[in-house]
Amino acid sequence: MAAAVDAIPDDYLDGYAEILAEVSATGRRLTRDELRARRALGERAAREGLALRELVRVHLAATRALWPELPGVAGAFGVRQVGLTAEGVLAAVEQAVDALAEGFERAQLLAVRRDEAARREFIDDLLHGRGEPGSISARAERYGLRLAHTHAVAVAEAAGSFDEVHAVTRRVDDALVGRFGIREVLLTTKDGRLVCIAPGHRPEILEYFADRMLAVGAGEERPRTALGRPHSGARGVMRSYEEALSALELADRALIDGAVLRAAELLVFPVLTRDREAMADLVSTVLGPLAAARGGAEPLVRTLDVYFGAGCVAAEAARRLSLSVRALTYRLERIHALTGSDPADPFQRYTLQTAVIGARLLDWPARDF
């Protein structure tokens, strides 16, 4: 007990003995100013890193030491009078301790909010490449990230929106901490998506994150997770994040399927979209003639898309399109006649497939260019 009391500076008890003495003599409750002063002491204790438990213990110990000397207790006659006086003193102690705790908790809440605001600002700067790399790297150390090494980013999205208090966020965070510890891995949210940043030399972390996202989505619409490639430095985190977002965008536009998307497997898409003008020219030249077909180009473009997605197996493509094999064959022949390119010829098939990918990227023929 003595060690605990010594840990709290003496001035935390300034005025406390006088308050108890007056309360025991008059039976009054603590005034607003007295409560305000106790709250201020609680806030101060939180700022100075003292434990609330020890602060309360000091006040209770002081109450016990002062008890025999309190006027209302020492000078009371009769059991009833002593009981009423003791009840009033204990009520005052309860008020004082409650005010201390309120001030302490308020200071902690403000500190948490300041820390969360700083964390959110850091994450925004990191993912969007704002600020000096040296400054970002220094701030990253606080959150367990050593940006001198490579890092990769995984982004998960679902029908709903994720935030820091979402049940899925908590569940996945607990799983990551339990498996890999609190260092090196940063889990956060951004624009309603769940974001995981991990060292590039530990790909198992992001793979585990993707597995957890699949597990928590069982029985409902499953989240989709995209994994960016590892890159070095603060700018590397932003680049990996953008790769993951690009993969999710491709999935949203039905260009790729799957619940787990890996940017390393989708490198052809950035190549194809690097020169938009050239891609638009390819689509217009190769697929433009399909606009002359009855019903327009869209049904035939979709036929090619499904046919290539089925590995150019006519029976499987017909099943996916809910067509007979004969009807599918007719469509392919019609495409050949209009475009002059044969889907069955390896070289011409490559040209057609590239043009179909470009059409999806450019949202053609729904959107002209």
TrEMBL record:
Residues 129-250 form the CdaR GGDEF-like domain. Signal peptide: none annotated. Residues 300-356 form the PucR C-terminal helix-turn-helix domain. InterPro entries: CdaR-like_regulators, CdaR_GGDEF, PucR_C-HTH_dom, PucR_C-HTH_sf. PANTHER family: CARBOHYDRATE DIACID REGULATOR, DNA-BINDING TRANSCRIPTIONAL ACTIVATOR ADER. Belongs to the CdaR family. This is Helix-turn-helix domain-containing protein.
